[in-house]
């Protein structure tokens, strides 16, 4: 536990430093990937101590952590310019599709100032960031990480600690090599994290709704993983991990789409045909790529046009109906998700 607390204190300190740099738009290419890596890692640790079960979303996040560690090991100052250009190019493709349909005054960038990029140059320098590239070509170059990566598919509560210990060792070495001058400013233990999320008045009430929702889903055959999904995103929301929430949003949309044998975009339109939801999914796809981060935007439309968590709840509700779950259970589920949404809106209004 002492080693985990040491690791957690380090990553929380560096995460907060990078969060400040992000707000000042002064992140280096290493910072951008490290910020993503730390966000994923902290989210996994929260899930470990507050849920304690391995699920589909856990496996996805472990893969993202290992992939990001390996990509960090391949990046350097010279090829990072190609990375920024490629991400900028991808964002331009997304927003060009929506520029005549959305209120762009709400976005945090000038849509006319995207960088030009030659895709052939990027692929020559950074082939491993493209979705079609077999990442095993990189991961397999490190025997231990390759072993963990292959273990993820069969991950369960018995062998998860093997990966945890191994990745903590890798993480400490990586952090010490890249951020050796950062001093640990406080001792932020796991017990403190658990106390913070459940004892803060707003979090305590919000998480009580999340827990009740998760309990209903856990009681339904075949909804175990979705129950853990709901709890996991509730924790991320309480801590303000918007980018992690978007990655998990894509994961649960794809998961439900597979269960219903439909494509993800069609599923979103069926549940809530709001064009901002389609944009949200495309942003989530970009954040889930190995190239990994949003340069210009990371839109902040939650207050006015999008409620990501409620959209996920509606997707789950749609699945409950498709699986012919009893009307009594569905009524209880609707009552809870509406209460959760209303409480969330109330706390946002009070904060403003």
Concise summary:
This protein is an all-alpha fold.
What does this structure look like?
- This protein is 71% helix and 0% strand.
- The chain has 352 residues and is mostly helical.
- The chain starts with a helix and ends with a helix.
- It is globular and about 60 Å long.
Alpha carbon gap, first and last residue: 39 Å
Provide the residue-averaged pLDDT.
Answer: 82
Q: Helix tally?
A: 16
Query: In total, how many domains does the architecture comprise?
Result: 2
Listing every helix as H and every strand as E from the N terminus to the C terminus, the arrangement reads HHHHHHHHHHHHHHHH
Poorly predicted tracts of residues: none
Q: Give the helix level as a range of percent.
A: over 70%
Q: Approximately what portion of the residues adopt beta-strand conformation?
A: under 5%
> Main β-sheet, in a few words?
none
Can you tell me the overall shape?
A: globular
**Which secondary-structure class do the elements indicate?**
mainly alpha
Number of beta-strand segments: 0
Gyration radius over CA: 20 Å
Multimerization state: single chain
């Amino acid at each position: 536990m002492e080693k985990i607390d040491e690791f957690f204190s380090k990553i929380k300190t560096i995460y907060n430093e990078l969060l400040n740099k992000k707000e000042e738009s002064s992140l280096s290419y290493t910072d951008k990937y490290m910020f993503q890596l730390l966000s994923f890692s902290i989210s996994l640790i929260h899930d470990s101590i507050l849920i304690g079960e391995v699920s589909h979303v856990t496996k996805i996040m472990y893969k993202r952590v290992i992939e990001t560690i390996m990509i960090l090991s391949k990046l350097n100052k010279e090829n990072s310019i190609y990375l920024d250009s490629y991400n900028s190019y991808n964002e331009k493709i997304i927003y060009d599709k929506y520029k005549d349909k959305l209120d762009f005054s709400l976005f945090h960038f000038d849509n006319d100032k995207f960088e030009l990029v030659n895709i052939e140059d990027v692929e020559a320098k950074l082939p491993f960031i493209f979705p079609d590239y077999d990442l095993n070509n990189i991961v397999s170059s490190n025997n231990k990480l390759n072993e963990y990566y292959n273990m993820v598919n069969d991950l369960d509560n018995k062998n998860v600690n093997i990966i945890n210990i191994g990745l903590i060792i890798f993480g400490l070495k990586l952090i010490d090599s890249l951020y050796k001058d950062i001093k640990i400013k406080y001792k932020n233990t796991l017990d403190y994290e658990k106390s913070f999320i459940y004892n803060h008045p707003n979090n305590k009430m919000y998480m009580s709704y999340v827990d009740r929702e998760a309990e209903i889903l856990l009681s339904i055959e075949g909804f175990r993983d979705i129950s853990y999904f709901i709890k996991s995103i509730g924790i991320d929301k309480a801590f303000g991990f918007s980018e992690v929430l978007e990655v998990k949003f894509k994961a649960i949309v794809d998961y439900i789409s597979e269960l219903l044998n439909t494509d993800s975009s069609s599923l979103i339109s069926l549940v809530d045909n709001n064009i901002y939801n389609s944009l949200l999914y495309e942003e989530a796809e970009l954040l889930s790529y190995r190239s990994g981060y949003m340069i210009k935007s990371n839109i902040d439309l939650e207050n006015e046009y999008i409620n990501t968590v409620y959209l996920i709840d509606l997707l789950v509700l749609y699945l409950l109906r498709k699986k012919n779950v009893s009307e009594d259970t569905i009524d209880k589920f609707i009552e809870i998700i509406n209460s959760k949404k209303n409480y969330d809106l109330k706390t946002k209004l009070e904060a403003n």
